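Predict the structure of Major facilitator superfamily (MFS) profile domain-containing protein.
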Amino acid sequence: MVAPTITDVTMFAVCPHQPECSIAIYLTGFQQAVIGLGTLFMMPLVGNLSDRYGRKALLTLPMSLSIIPLAILAYSRSRNFFYAYYVLKTLTSMVCEGSVQCLALAYVADNVPVRRRAAAFGILSGIGSAAFVCGTFIARFLSTASTFQVATAVAIAGTVYMRIFLPDVAVEESLKTPILCRGKEKIVADFANEISPIKSEQIFKSRPSLRDMLTMLQSSKIFTQAAVVAFFLSLSDAGFQASVTVYLPGVLFADFNSI
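Done. Here is the predicted structure for Major facilitator superfamily (MFS) profile domain-containing protein.
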């Protein structure tokens, strides 16, 4: 919902009353680079922890964190608040970027039979695309301030709905994470008792490392090729978004002055 308006907010905060703003491209590029590197290390950790503590518990984290940047711009879109949004958005996106979709797909895989998973994945992706289109369409009829306020309210409602109505799935004790290297012990979380400091230390010691991710890439040629395609797709998408941030305001501003 906020995608159509974030360009105007960025231009107004960074380069007010200017048709072009190269600083916006640099800020967007730096943000995408930091988010990408952070996601590279955080996503395997989130997936690994969701295997131990359940999808619902881990879904709560990114869905809750995504509310904070929206709430900042819902309150004010001045320069100081924009930079606060920029920093928090960069930090929270390391955990939130893509993790909600991945955990949602994992939740569907846990609850849908194997023969119906492909159809369920397609339906879930279609619903996500429809939500994006509806959010963009609704933003057309809202002011900039109202757009972020509505987006914040929707994010809060989604998190509350998930916590109340989404049934949790019991974690299978026999579940093993194939990304981990051999010799690493699997730690089963005890939901009845509080986690001791020793267990917490073991959990973070057993998180997937860079070596684990490289091992997984080397274990399957098809997976490696899919990762390469995903990398270049994300790279082109980030470059397109950064270019549009500067190109469209400049073109529209020039057309407006020529009228």
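The longest helix spans residues 221-258.
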